[in-house]
Design brief:
Radius of gyration: 11 Å
Oligomer: single chain
Strand content: 5-15%
Distance between the termini: 15 Å
Largest sheet: 2 strands, antiparallel
Strand order of the largest sheet: 1-2
Length: 73
């Protein structure tokens, strides 16, 4: 099961740096990085390694099946 990034993402790119599949977007080099509200994980390329979960300083990456009530995807 893939992971999701919730609305309280801090966009510090810690998760991007540890992702072995490069499936977290946008990256800081993408033009839209500064304008998106939060990052997202491409579910088609995510291998569910959970590296991003540990790297996220905001605790904004739970398993996709367990978003907190009231949190947007």
């Amino acid at each position: 099961m893939t992971h999701v990034i919730l609305g309280h993402c801090c966009k510090d790119a810690s998760c991007i740096q540890v992702c072995p599949q490069n499936c977290i977007r946008p990256t800081p080099s993408d033009p839209e990085f500064d304008t998106v509200e939060h990052l997202y994980i491409d579910p088609d390329t995510c291998i569910d390694c959970s590296a991003c979960v540990q790297a996220c300083p905001a605790g904004a990456i739970p398993p996709a099946s367990a978003p907190t009530p009231g949190e947007g995807r």
